[in-house]
Design brief:
There is one protein chain. The protein is an alpha+beta fold and 349 residues long. Helices cover 26% and strands 23% of the residues. Strand 3 and strand 4 form a beta hairpin. It is globular. The two termini are 38 Å apart. The structure holds fe (ii) ion. The site of fe (ii) ion has 4 residues, from loops.
Length: 349
């Protein structure tokens, strides 16, 4: 029996209400984090970190593209001046000076407590960094993971389609995130839907300085709100491949495209988000199942189950030979498993 729209809406709520956190990092930790940003850049756009095609990008967001839009849009057309880098992946911290942040006992305790679980381990840690820029108002889900279908071996869009489908709940990896912001400029708040996509959203308001939330963002719609004054948001020349880097001589941040500076920000104009994510295991049995892969999904099983469900729903599609890269098939998936919070994102420019 296929899940209804209402079933999906119920499934897309965090395991517990998000918790607002103050003084998330120490001043010393913040200084070391900024030290890494300054000395290890320049950093690519968020979208360049994750997507090769427009379809893949849209699949992680709220809905299918409108008729006729597809072939005319490139990633450059929808590039935004928002940049990302990783401090660690696969439970491995890239920068020794940030190990106390990555392996933080405080965060691990928060993650366990949020789930009422016995065990947690840090998985990855990243930052988003920007100044005033245009951004879509699309609420989205972060990359959900399943035993066997993970960020290391599967595209984000597939995992999120799986999450939205509600067909793989028993394989879902339990996760929790601590997300923190440092930003004293205008706008740039965080909006989230703790009561499901059709519930009333909440906004994490200013002052956003070392303030954060404890959340389960892979099943809770959320978005970063546009940053900076509207009149400051244009970035002419911005491309999917643009980068941002610190220029110590000027003490500013420069966005470049192919090495040419197209925009500068003063430090106080920039907004930093640090995202720490953990996997959580209810008990030893669940941990063992994850470690020995005795109950893993494969992409074959995933596509079989998705196609069976689409058939049952009466969705027409051509069975793909390469489902991971078949644009028409991906569009059918998006159209089938779209769900979007309220409606305000529909008015995006
Ligand atoms: Fe997110």
């Amino acid at each position: 029996m296929a899940l209804t729209h209402e079933d999906l809406a119920l499934a897309l709520r965090p395991v517990a209400p998000p918790r607002v956190l103050e003084e998330v990092y120490t001043d010393d930790q913040y200084e070391r984090i900024m030290g890494v940003l300054k000395s290890h850049g320049p950093w690519p756009t968020i979208t360049a970190n994750h997507f090769d095609t427009v379809e893949e990008l849209v699949a992680t967001s709220s809905g299918p593209m409108r008729e006729g839009e597809g072939p005319n849009i490139t990633l450059d057309d929808i590039a935004t001046g928002h940049f990302r880098g990783y401090f660690g992946k696969g439970s491995t911290c890239y920068y020794p000076e940030l190990e106390d942040c990555f392996y933080s006992p405080k965060f691990l305790e928060l993650a366990r407590d949020y789930w009422g679980a016995e065990y947690a381990k840090p998985t990855h840690m990243l930052f988003n960094f920007c100044g005033a820029h245009h951004s879509g108002l699309s609420p989205h889900l972060d990359a959900v993971q399943f035993r066997g279908i993970r960020i290391e071996n599967a595209p984000v869009w597939l995992a999120n389609i799986m999450g939205k489908s509600g067909l793989f709940q028993e394989y879902m990896v339990k996760m929790a995130q601590v997300i923190a912001w440092w930003y004293r400029g205008e706008n740039g708040t965080f909006t989230y839907w703790p009561d499901g996509p059709f519930g009333q959203p909440k906004v994490l308001e200013h002052p956003l300085w070392d303030k954060g939330v404890l959340v389960q963002n892979e099943v809770m719609f959320h978005r970063g709100d546009p940053v900076g004054r509207p009149e400051d948001r244009d970035i002419p020349g911005l491309k999917h491949r643009s980068m941002i880097g610190y220029e110590p001589d000027l003490d500013d941040w420069a966005i470049t495209t192919d090495g040419e500076v197209i925009r500068r920000y003063r430090p106080e104009e920039t907004r930093l988000l640090v995202h720490w994510s953990a996997e959580v295991y209810s008990d030893r049995e669940e941990l063992e199942k994850s470690l020995d892969h005795s109950d893993d999904l494969t992409t074959d099983v995933v596509f079989e189950r998705l196609m069976a469900d689409m058939t049952m729903r009466g969705t027409s599609f051509t069975e793909p030979t390469d489902p991971l890269h078949d644009t028409d098939f991906i569009r059918s998936l998006i159209a089938t498993y779209t769900i979007a919070p309220t409606t305000d994102w529909l008015e995006q420019p």
